Amino acid sequence: MSDFLVRDLMVPLSEYATVPEGSTLFDAVLALEKAQEEFDHTKYRHRAVLILDADGWVIGKLGQLDVLRALQPKDDEAEKFSDLGQFGFSSKFVHDMHKQRLMKAMPLKSLCREASKLKVEDFMQAPSEGEFIEQEETLEAAIVQLVMGHHLSLLATRDNKIVGILRLTDAFAAVFHTMKEGEI
């Protein structure tokens, strides 16, 4: 039997960075910064913000990569680059073409200024069925879910309500601690 349950390792929802639906990316970045400052610095920092609807239900997660994606210029040309691979062009060639296009785009400050006004709903990832786990589940069950689903975190539930988030880093820390305990 496991020494760890999800509830022992999860970050409670009350301690996690959240913003209401309709918030801007800038609001989300500020919430993430605030949560990182207030969180126990002996643990890994938060890397995402949870998006809540008007009733306080989690409707999505906005990660660091999602914020960086918001900086990418949106136009018809971007679609053309992703299609080039279908015609036999190497991924390096497609990457180099995309990089050249981005270098001609706005300066980073301008990209950030524009992206900061965008709504979180346009970039958040809605949780999939495989991203939920009951808080009374074992760490072993959580590991299976994390690995099989390639998830960076799982939303911990109690009575079908999200009460926390189990991050990959917290599961790994528990495994690492267990490995060290077994060391002779």
Q: Which consecutive residue ranges, at least 5 long each, have pLDDT under 50?
A: none
What percent of residues are in strands?
Answer: 15-25%
Read across the widest sheet, the strand sequence of neighbours is 1-7-6-5
Overall number of strands: 7
Helical content (DSSP H or I, runs of 4+): 40-55%
Shape: globular
Number of helices: 8
**Average predicted local confidence, pLDDT:** 85
What is the string of helix and strand elements? Answer: HEEHEEHHHHEHEEH
Assign the structural class, choosing from mainly alpha, mainly beta, alpha/beta, alpha+beta, or little secondary structure.
alpha/beta
What gap, in angstroms, lies between the N and C termini? 22 Å
What does this structure look like?
- Helices cover 43% and strands 17% of the residues.
- It is built from eight helices and seven strands.
- The strands form two sheets. A four-stranded mixed β-sheet has the order 1-7-6-5. The chain has a three-stranded mixed β-sheet with strand order 2-3-4.
- It is α/β, with parallel strands linked by helices and 184 residues long.
